[in-house]
């Protein structure tokens, strides 16, 4: 009887230990200095950026209520200046939740008009933006400023780039990811918009440091390589579909070996292919094309 009880308890203990480890990994937080008065906040696999001035703090995505609570406490201990602004990168709730925590002492919340509209329409449980803009907005804070720019559709609604000056740090969430493959089957992405927006970023004034909402920080060269991957992926799927190939065939044939060093290459390349395929069917209506001998 005792031996049977032990045999039951051992797997249970391992399960509890695994769950605890997962929970710890999920809520791992980190604050690191990037350049000049710009810092990066990490919560698990998510990143946001904040800027410190004598007049106060400019924060970006709160990520979650738990992450925002941790960040708020750390900022009050480390910098002793108020939170003046919070800017959402886009509408997705895995980046905007927790805005109510950071804004409760009167900070001004900023977002693109489409992101703000979506937050209101969906009744997302976070702080509603106080200031919205259509194309671009510059916010001065002390001797620094943040330049927010809308590049058109790319991921979610109202996704923008943020350039922190004079540090010249560029922050973009989700539609540019360096040091890793784009996420799975490109859920919520517009492949045409991703390519267009990334080209626009690279055509603008050079930045000194790129920071993403996920994965790595990097340089202009890293962003150029990311764009090259998107273009190669899109061209490979498009050419295959124009030739009448099925999704299954495309997933088995498309390899793009020059990007095989990217983390999640083997796991996510077939899913990336599926994401582009889905966009061309659902957004570009390839299934109505009479010049292609295929069933989509």
From TrEMBL:
Residues 1-23 form the signal peptide. It holds the Pfam family Lactamase_B. Keywords: Signal. Residues 45-214 form the Metallo-beta-lactamase domain. The keyword Signal applies. It comes from the Bacteria. This is MBL fold metallo-hydrolase. It comes from Microbulbifer pacificus. The lineage of its organism: Bacteria, Pseudomonadati, Pseudomonadota, Gammaproteobacteria, Cellvibrionales.
């Amino acid at each position: 009887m005792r031996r049977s009880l032990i045999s039951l308890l051992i797997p249970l203990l391992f399960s509890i230990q695994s769950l605890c480890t997962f929970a710890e990994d999920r809520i791992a937080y980190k604050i690191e200095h990037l350049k000049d008065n710009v810092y990066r906040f990490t919560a698990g696999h998510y990143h946001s950026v904040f800027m410190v001035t004598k007049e106060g703090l400019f924060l970006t995505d709160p990520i979650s209520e738990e992450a925002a609570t941790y960040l708020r406490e750390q900022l009050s201990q480390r910098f002793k200046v108020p939170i003046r602004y919070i800017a959402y990168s886009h509408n997705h709730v895995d980046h905007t939740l927790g805005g109510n925590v950071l804004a409760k002492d009167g900070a001004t919340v900023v977002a693109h008009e489409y992101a703000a509209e979506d937050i209101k329409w969906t009744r997302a449980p976070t702080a509603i933006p106080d200031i919205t803009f259509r194309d671009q907005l510059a916010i001065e804070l002390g001797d620094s400023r943040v330049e927010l720019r809308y590049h058109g559709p790319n991921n979610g609604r109202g996704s923008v780039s943020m350039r922190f000056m004079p540090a010249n740090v560029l922050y973009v969430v989700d539609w540019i990811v360096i040091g890793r493959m784009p996420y799975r089957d490109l859920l919520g992405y517009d492949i045409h918009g991703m390519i267009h927006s990334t080209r626009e970023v690279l055509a603008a004034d050079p930045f000194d440091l790129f920071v993403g909402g996920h994965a790595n920080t990097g340089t202009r060269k890293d962003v150029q390589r990311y764009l090259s991957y998107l273009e190669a992926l899109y061209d490979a799927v498009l050419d295959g579909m124009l030739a009448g190939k099925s999704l299954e065939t495309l997933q088995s044939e498309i390899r793009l070996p020059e990007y095989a060093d990217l983390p999640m290459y083997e796991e996510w390349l077939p899913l990336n292919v599926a994401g582009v395929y889905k966009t061309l069917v659902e957004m570009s209506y390839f299934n109505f094309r009479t010049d292609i001998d295929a069933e989509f």
